[in-house]
Write a structure and sequence with these properties.
- 57% of the residues lie in helices and 8% in strands.
- With 215 residues, the protein is of the alpha+beta class.
- It binds glutathione (GSH).
- The site of glutathione has 10 residues, from helix 1.
- The site of glutathione (GSH) has 10 residues, from helix 1.
């Protein structure tokens, strides 16, 4: 098999890449990375010294691809399928990339800040940083809610890379700073994401690890 994904099923960014792979039934081998163990981390740092998951190895093309948005664009280009993650049309493509960045930077990142803080030992917590992250999530929720009043998926009628970014980030964001009930269109969108078979599968595979999620 040409493609190997180094990942952890619980990780939101790894789920983003898995959704893209599952959308098009792209064959790949998964290797679970344990960044919590010293050995696992050291081995992973040899592959990608930045130490962020996931990373995609393409044996056929002798490439290592980090960064989920680049992984998805790579899949689109070299392993295309029925779901088109980034449209050919230049303006539509920019819109998808913007929405993808939005979910990564303004939902996933603040969510990770809050989760990361829960894992910090007493005395090393950052309440001001957590407050900032929650404020940012509020702004993001409001913007997504408005946006989703007229759309099925993040960029319109077609599922795209932006939806791959949205599903896992919203799932965990709702756990640490709930949006359900307060944001009607966002909630309806999130419910559609939960029904999407590619994400439902990623979520099912994360289930056995969910007890590791703090809080
Ligand atoms: N910009 C990166 C972010 C990846 C990322 O933050 N991954 C998290 C897991 S969800 C991670 O590896 N965290 C481990 C760490 O920071 O030590 C991407 O899109 O791939």
């Amino acid at each position: 098999m040409s493609l190997k994904l180094y990942f952890h099923p619980l990780s939101s960014f790894c789920q983003k890449a898995m959704i893209a792979l599952y959308e098009n039934d792209t064959p790949f081998e998964g290797e679970i990375v344990d960044l919590m163990s010293e050995e696992g981390r050291a081995a992973y740092l040899k592959l990608w010294p930045i130490g962020k998951m996931p990373i995609l190895r393409d044996e056929a093309r002798n490439r290592m691809i980090p960064e989920t948005s680049i992984i998805i664009e790579y899949l689109q280009r070299f392993y295309p399928g029925r779901t088109v993650f980034v449209p050919d049309d230049v303006e539509q493509a920019l819109h998808v990339r913007l929405r993808d960045r939005f979910f990564d930077l303004y939902v996933n990142d603040p969510m990770q800040k809050i989760v990361g803080d829960k894992l910090r030992p007493e005395g090393q917590k950052d309440p001001a940083g957590v407050d900032r992250a929650k404020s940012l999530l509020e702004v993001s929720y409001g913007l997504i809610d408005k946006e989703m009043a007229t759309k099925t998926w993040a960029c319109g009628e077609d599922f795209s890379m932006a939806d791959c970014a949205a599903a896992p980030s919203l799932f965990y964001a709702d756990k640490v700073h709930p949006f359900r009930d307060q944001y009607q269109h966002l909630t309806a969108y999130f419910d559609r994401l939960l029904q999407r078979p590619s994400y439902a599968r990623a979520l099912r595979e994360a289930e056995p690890f969910m007890k590791l999620f703090p809080g």
